[in-house]
Design a protein that fits this description.
Blueprint lengths: L10 H6 L17 E2 L5 E9 L1 H4 L9 E2 L10 H19 L9 E5 L6 H10 L3 E3 L6 H14 L5 E8 L1 H8 L15 E2 L2 E8 L10 E6 L14 H19 L9 E5 L2 H14 L8 E3 H4 L11 E2 L1 H18 L4 E9 L14 E9 L7
Parallel strand pairs: 2-3, 4-5, 4-6, 7-12, 10-11, 10-13
Antiparallel strand pairs: 1-9, 2-8, 6-8, 9-14, 13-14
Helix pairs in contact: 3-4, 7-8
Length: 368
């Protein structure tokens, strides 16, 4: 970082909580915090959403809102690829760059073999690293991209992800035609795509938000095996990474203008608050979950939004707008992912989950 860390790690906090988290979840003794001394900048971004998302509370912040879930394509899968391509090319344009300026693309999605991002990468034609973190894919992509740029390997790295309600339901649960009844603790997969361009820190890009730290997640499993109860499954993973965030980075929970998770929904974020309270950390009004933000109550989306695009579209629109204007000085972005397969839960397996974090600071503050 360009400045010294303000806060010291309170030893008592770590010691008091030692041993209270049961196996198989634990806090690793290894160094997990990645500090980016050259502070890569997010110089371009774009978010694309479907009609339902455009009618939510954040509709005015998204860059493009589609009115047709198939986008004129024959299948929902082809529509998802097209939406992904739109977000990627839009982010590159926003960065005032061309495809030839992109050194690497890091992306993923929810479908088997990362179908959407792989087909889109074929058409875009740049070197590609596919990552799968389910709903945590955006933070995983940003983490990898920032590492590549901070290390001096690449100058411009593109991060992208997407999800589609119809394709995710068909793969992980039931086709829409089946008309399956959804339980009240279920969430609604967001139809959308988002992309960010992460570039090397030069004088020309000093006005853009910077990635200063990242925390790779640890696989966490508290025994949930219900495919519909994603919030309860992912909350312990978010707790694991968030505890590391406020005990090992030098920041406390009050040093952030906003701490966002994605996508725990209403139930999952309530569980996270309880888990953090039991560990001695009280989350205040500066914490919110993206699943709670993207839909309005009248839209009847049960516990809220989920899917790769949920937190990704919100981060690349609403959150980045606030960082670029200086209204937010420092934001912690923790996306969470449920890493089950299409068959694992039907075979009696529980759901392993993960949460990666990135800390992003405004160019108009955040330093000492």
């Amino acid at each position: 970082m360009e400045s010294e860390i303000k806060h010291t790690i309170p030893k008592s906090r770590t010691e008091e909580n030692a041993g209270i988290f049961p196996s198989p979840t634990y806090f690793s003794p290894r160094q997990r915090v990645m500090r980016f001394f050259n502070t890569p900048r997010i110089v371009g971004r774009m978010s694309v959403v479907g009609e339902k998302e455009s009618k939510g509370p954040l509709g005015k912040y998204f860059h493009k809102c589609e009115t047709d879930d198939k986008l004129g394509e024959k299948t929902f899968e082809r529509a998802e690829i097209r939406m992904f391509d739109t977000a990627v090319r839009g982010a590159i344009r926003d960065a005032k760059l061309g495809i030839e300026d992109i050194d690497l693309m890091v992306s993923g999605d929810l479908l088997n073999q990362m179908t959407t991002s792989s087909y889109a990468a074929r058409d875009i034609g740049v070197p590609h690293i596919g990552v799968y973190g389910a709903c945590s894919t955006m933070t995983e992509s940003l983490l990898v991209a920032a590492t590549m740029v901070d290390g001096g390997y690449y100058k411009n790295v593109l991060c992208a992800t997407c999800s589609h309600f119809a394709t995710a339901e068909r793969q992980f649960r039931f086709p829409l035609e089946y008309g399956c009844q959804r339980p009240p603790y279920a969430q609604w997969t967001v139809t959308g795509a988002a992309a960010s361009v992460v570039s090397a820190n030069t004088e020309a890009v000093k006005r853009f938000p910077k990635i200063v730290m990242a925390i790779p997640g640890i696989i966490t499993d508290f025994g949930t095996n219900d495919l519909n109860n994603m919030g309860a499954a992912m909350a312990p993973a978010a707790m694991n990474t968030m505890f590391t965030l406020v005990t090992e980075t030098g920041y406390s929970e009050d040093d952030f203008d906003l701490i966002i998770t994605g996508d725990l929904g209403k139930l999952g974020s309530d569980i996270l608050r309880d888990l953090m309270r039991k560990s001695g950390i009280k989350l205040g009004q500066n914490y919110i979950d993206c699943g709670n933000m993207i839909y309005d109550v009248y839209q009847k989306c049960y516990q809220g939004g989920s899917g790769c695009a949920c937190s990704a579209t919100i981060f690349n629109s609403f959150i980045m707008d606030k960082l670029c204007s200086g209204e937010y000085k420092r934001v912690a972005y923790l996306a969470t992912g449920a890493l089950m397969s299409t068959q694992s839960c039907y075979q009696g397996e529980t759901i392993p989950c993960i949460s990666h974090a990135v800390i992003v600071e405004s160019p108009y503050g955040g330093e000492e």
